[in-house]
Structure formats: C-alpha cells, structure tokens
Specification:
six-stranded antiparallel β-sheet, single chain, 22 helices, alpha+beta
C-alpha cells in the first residue's frame, strides 16, 4: 500500500512537493518518487505525480512509482493490491506484453495500454489509481468498487488535484482546517463521521467508489468528464464455503506474511480457520485487552482459546489508561479527518506493527454484508438510520430530520438495510478510518469478506435467509465445523474502547475547554454539556462526547 498525490494544471512548487511527500511518508516508508512534465497543449500547464511506497508485491526497485511505460507515454501511481494480477498478467503476456517486474503496478500499466478504461471492470482488488496518458493528454482516476482505498479530489479552474489524504492537500496549501465545510460539520455532528462525498476541508471531495473519470487537457483548459461506474468481475455462482476459501486464498498473495486481527468473535475466527487450512507455517494473530479501565469488554481469553484451537502464533496486548494517553496524539496525526471510530483500530494496528506485522487480515465487511447488526432486521429505514445517529448533535430538529430523510432510501426494504450499512457506515466510517490509521503505521489491512464474489453472494440472498436463525446465520453455519462451539454461541460484543473514565479524569478534555475551542465553529455549548452528562450517567455512552473531543483536538493541529 502507498500514498499518492497528483495535479494536472498549475505547477506545484518544489517546496510544496517536499511537504506533500512528507505528509504521505508514513503511508509509504519504503521509498518515494516524483514525475513532472510540462504539457505541450497548453504549454503553461504541468503534470505532477508524487508517490510514497509500502512494498508488498515485488519488494525490489522494479516496483518503484511513479511507473512509466517503456515508451514513456504512460505514467501511473497506484495505492492498493490487485488480487487477480496473475490471471491478468497471463492474458497480457499472451497478447505480447513483456514484464520486467512481478509487481501488480506493471500489470495495471500494460493493462491500461491493452484494454483502456475497460481495465477497471477486470480488476479484483482494492485500489486507487491515476494514469497519465500523454498521447491523448488525459488523466484517468479510478477507485475500487467498495471504496477500500481512499481517493480524494479537488477541482479548481486552474487545476485538478487528487491525493490519498486530506493532509496532502493541506501540505500543498490547497485546503485548510481554517476553512471547513459547514455541510460536512453537520454530517459529523449527527453521524460521528463525515458522509461522502463531503470532507471537512472545504473544496475537497471523496472520489466515488466503483468509478473512473477522464480529465482532458487542451487549448481550452481542463475538461473533467462525468465519473463513470464500472462493475467488479464476478465469477459464476458457487457455494458460500467455496467462496470463503477462494477469498482468503486470493488475498494471501504478496511477498509479506499475512497476520490476523483476532477478536473473540465469529468473523476473525473464521478467517483464522481458513488461513490455517491453506497455510502450513506460522500464522501470527493478535488481540487487544484492557486493564484498569472500568467498563472494558475484554475478549482476549476467547481470542487466545480460538488461536490455540487453530494453532496460531498468538499475542495478547494489554491497554491501560496510560497507553490511551500515549497513543492519543499519534492517533490524531493518523486519522486525517475526525471520526468517533478508528482509535480502536489504531491501537491494534500499532500493536501489530510492534510485533513486525506488515500485512493483516481484518473481518471488516462481514457484519454489513451478512446482517450482523440487530437493527438490520428492522423494517423501517428511518428507524434503522436513526439508530446510527449520535445523540446531542447540537443540530436544530428541522435540520436533523432533513439529514435523516435525505439518507432514507425508498428502495426495497429487504435490500436496503444491507445497502445502507455497506454504502454508509462501512465506507464512510469503518473503511475510511481503518485505512487511515493502519497506513499511517505502515500496515496493510486486507478485507477478505469484501471479495467481489462474496459480495455478490451476500447481496443475492434475501434478508430472511441471512436472519433465518439470527444475525449472520449463513456465516455461522459455515463456521460450525471450524470454530469452538462457545465462540459460535456468544452474542456479538464488538471491539469498543472503555474511554469514559479516561475522558472524565483528564482536564484536557473538560467540557469548559471544549466549549471554548469549538465556539469558533459554532458548536453549541449545550450540545457539549449534554454529551458530557450522558457519559457521566452511563459510561458506555461516551461516543457523543468523544465526537467533540476528537473534533476539538483535530482542529488544534493546524
């Protein structure tokens, strides 16, 4: 995985290039590259491509980016993994293409030469890609169908700019925390995360998942066409058991060993069992527990039991209040945009890197696709959406209801719950936050449950099938022969941090301080006080207050 930045139009100053690479360095600690060229038409315009690399497939310099074609007329920067690169490589070799490396980046380069924009619908993987086609004076951007890998863009009269992170736009002087999107602030206040395509930085948007766009340079300036959707490749229907094995096998590629985030639950346990079936050597797994944190839900004993049953090399990391304090500043630097989520993933990613993991499997996507949340069984779309909102938003009732209504879908209710969770919570919160914090630590997170064939299978089943014997019926049935019975019978707890006691005892997070800090962006004082009171009444309800803490501290990092 990597960090990327590019601009078509006005030239980026040399010092700004340095600052951008510095901002993206943690996403790609294994190397960086720059490609700059002046355009022939118009002559005062410029193309800039910047890249930082985390080497996973082909660790040699042959995988260096930006990568150019032998003719020099195509240049590419890429963040992600292409899981079907071997099949595509064989097709391209049969068509006469020669390869210098074993990297999937080169497959994309030759693939675009051969298939053009039909390439995107052939890819099974997670990716954000930019290709400069010099002969046609076109810049093409593309992003994977689930939005696993981030791609942000900004359109101005003088240039089109794209990047992996908001921090890169800030480093380039193209956006600022002093100029926030009011609409995005409202979204954050209500949901605890910013709904795409918005970002908190005014003028920067999220590029749509499952789309590509063509940006043309010419005498009349820059012309950005409408983003076009593409469909990820899906194989013929197959049994769920076969699809799960296939997904794990596909995503085990690369020159780095694959580790596992192991909770005490079904999803990660199932991934561990499938990994063990396919690999004979050591498989490292990791779980995070807590000490001296009131209200903590600690599943590390269950995780250790699962690891022992599967023969995994397991480590348990214990988090205390001191660890929360020590990790908070690095988390703020990593998160890129405020969210009520992400701190948990940051802690486990930090622990994973400390023991040498570079690639790790995560169970993300299983709950959203296979009906793992109890509210997904509710018939009312408005009620389901309301269950996701965060209390004490400070929004007036009319605006709050308008935001809820705008999100409520009118399509078939049986499909809507899955669509809502995958399109909103999974993309806007879980995937965005997990990528930001794991990549900031130089860790590649893979999500086998979001394999296109698994997605197609899950979406092809009715809600009644998914919920036949309770949440995640279909996955639970597959795990019966693979996991201990006590894991299958435990109710879902989730990986929730016990933050209330820490937030309540640290003067840095006092309500009066937050009120003063957030007054500049007109967050009502009563919303902050209400959030504080909710946390004091019930420590498990720390999320409303945590929302304001993260926002306040993020704004201070100008």
């Amino acid at each position: 995985m990597c960090g990327l930045f590019g601009q078509l139009g006005a030239q980026l100053k040399e010092h700004s290039q340095y600052l951008v690479l510095k901002a993206l360095n943690e996403r790609g600690p294994d190397g960086h590259g720059i490609h700059i060229e002046q355009l022939d038409i118009p002559s005062d315009q410029c193309l800039t491509l910047l890249h930082t690399r985390l080497a996973i497939q082909d660790l040699s310099s042959l995988g260096h980016q930006p990568m150019g074609s032998p003719e020099g007329d195509l240049w590419l920067v890429f963040n992600g993994e292409i899981y079907n690169q071997l099949q595509l490589r064989q097709e391209l070799q049969q068509a006469g293409f020669c390869f210098r490396s074993t990297s999937d980046t080169e497959v994309l380069l030759h693939g675009y030469r051969y298939w053009g924009n039909r390439l995107w619908g052939k890819l099974n993987g997670i990716f954000a890609v930019a290709i400069w086609d010099r002969l046609n004076a076109e810049l093409i951007l593309a992003r994977d169908s689930c939005g696993v890998k981030p791609l942000l863009w900004q359109q101005r009269s003088a240039a089109l700019t794209f990047a992996s992170e908001l921090s890169a736009f800030e480093a380039a002087g193209l956006a600022s925390r002093k100029q926030l999107s009011i609409e995005a602030l409202h979204s954050f206040a209500l949901w605890g995360a910013v709904e795409a395509p918005l970002t908190l930085l005014q003028g920067v948007k999220v590029f749509p998942a499952g789309h590509f766009v063509v940006c043309k340079a010419g005498h009349e300036g820059l012309k950005v066409l409408q983003p076009q959707p593409f469909i990820a490749p899906v194989a013929a229907p197959a049994p769920l058991a076969d699809l799960l094995v296939q997904a794990v096998s596909r995503q085990s590629i690369g020159d780095r060993a694959v580790g596992l985030f192991l909770s005490g639950g079904l999803d990660s346990g199932l991934l561990g069992a499938l990994l063990r079936q396919q690999q004979q050597g050591p498989i490292n797994s990791l779980s995070v527990g807590f000490e001296q944190l009131p209200g903590a839900v600690d599943e590390t004993d269950q995780a250790a039991h699962t690891a022992a049953q599967l023969g995994l090399t397991h480590q348990r990391v214990v988090i205390s209040a001191k660890d929360l304090e020590a990790s908070f500043e690095p988390f703020l630097a990593a998160i890129d945009q405020p969210s009520i989520d992400g701190f948990n993933t940051f802690l486990v990613s930090q622990a994973a890197r400390a023991i040498g993991m570079v690639v790790a499997f995560s169970g993300l996507g299983a709950d959203e696709l296979f009906y793992g949340y109890r509210h997904m069984a509710w018939r009312s779309a408005h009620k389901r959406l309301a269950s996701r909102r965060i209390s004490a938003s400070g929004l007036n009732p009319w605006l709050k209801n308008e935001l809820l209504r705008a999100q409520a879908k009118t399509s078939d209710q049986a499909a809507t719950a899955q669509q809502e969770e995958c399109g909103r919570y999974l993309q806007n919160t879980l995937l965005r936050d997990s990528d930001a914090v794991s990549m900031a630590l130089g860790l590649e997170l893979r999500v086998p449950f979001l394999d296109p064939d698994l997605i197609a299978f899950a979406k092809g089943c009715s809600s009644a099938e998914h919920l036949r014997a309770g949440p995640k019926t279909l996955l639970r049935e597959q795990a019966e022969a693979l996991l201990p019975a006590e894991i299958l019978q435990r109710r879902k707890l989730g990986f929730n941090l016990p933050l209330a006691s820490w937030l309540s005892s640290d003067k840095r997070f006092a309500p009066s301080r937050l009120i003063n800090q957030l007054a500049q962006i007109e967050i009502p004082a009563n919303a902050i006080w209400r959030s504080w009171i909710l946390m004091q009444i019930s420590p498990r309800r720390f999320a409303p207050y945590w929302r304001w803490v993260v926002l306040s501290e993020w704004l201070e990092r100008v």
